[in-house]
Specification:
By secondary structure, the protein is mostly helical. It contains nine helices and four strands. The strands form two sheets. A two-stranded antiparallel sheet has the order 1-2. A two-stranded parallel ribbon has the order 3-4. InterPro entries: Cbl-bd_cap (IPR003759), Cobalamin-bd_sf (IPR036724), DNA-bd_dom_put_sf (IPR009061), MerR-type_HTH_dom (IPR000551), MerR_fam (IPR047057), Meth_synthase_dom (IPR036594).
């Protein structure tokens, strides 16, 4: 999702013009944050880009361009398929993480959780971004620092839900850990969240846990 400033800079359209097209002609209907700020989807951006082309390059009146848009929407302005509905957020989150931008990454993650069920966000956005981060690190595209930052960010977001999901005391406790030498814990984390949602009290120990250390548990 994009702010009006980002859309304005990307398309070279003044923000006041975007607001006018939106309010007077209903060209797009952006989402709003809790604070009332506009959030434009990729579809909105493509629609505004198409309108700009008709008005500025083809010398069409804005009213005629809007009428044409309503009668025959361009392919680029149609809605995305269900399989691609997460792509925009994934791309934005990945960019924020490799830029080591905690504030932007948190804003994008918060938006994702406000739009979709948390399981959707974990499986279709957070985990997919983590896979991409791992692949890009292995291919030398990003640094170790960027990979560690992204991984820790996603693990921290998952850990928040482990703390707040309710527990059913009638169900058994579950101890979740990776064996000694295993550092990759995202699969364990997602499975632990699944159990916690079912009501199990999950004792999460994380990666690289020697069996000897479990004797006191």
């Amino acid at each position: 999702m994009y702010s009006i400033k980002q859309v304005s800079e990307r398309l070279d359209i003044p923000a006041v013009t975007i607001r006018a097209w939106e309010n007077r002609y209903n060209v797009v209907a952006p989402n709003r944050t809790e604070g009332g700020h506009r959030l434009y989807s990729e579809k909105d951006v493509e629609t505004l880009k198409w309108i700009k082309t008709q008005v500025h390059e083809k010398n069409m009146k804005i009213s005629d361009a809007v009428r044409l848009l309503q009668e025959s929407p361009p392919a680029s302005a149609t809605s995305t398929s269900l399989n691609n509905k997460y792509d925009e957020l994934k791309a934005q989150l990945y960019k924020a993480l490799v830029n080591l931008d905690t504030q932007e990454a948190n804003q994008i993650a918060d938006l994702a959780f406000s739009l979709y069920d948390y399981e959707e966000v974990f499986h279709h956005i957070l985990v997919q971004v983590l896979y991409k981060v791992g692949d890009e690190w292995e291919n030398g595209v990003i640094s170790v620092a960027q990979e560690h930052f992204a991984s820790q960010f996603i693990i921290n977001r998952c850990t928040q839900f482990l703390r707040i999901l309710p527990v059913n005391p009638a169900l058994p406790k579950v101890m979740a850990f990776c064996p000694e030498g295993e550092q990759h814990q995202i699969g364990l984390m997602v499975f632990s969240l699944f159990l916690k949602k079912k009501g199990n009290d999950v004792i999460y120990l994380g990666p690289n846990t020697p069996l000897e250390g479990l004797q006191i548990c």
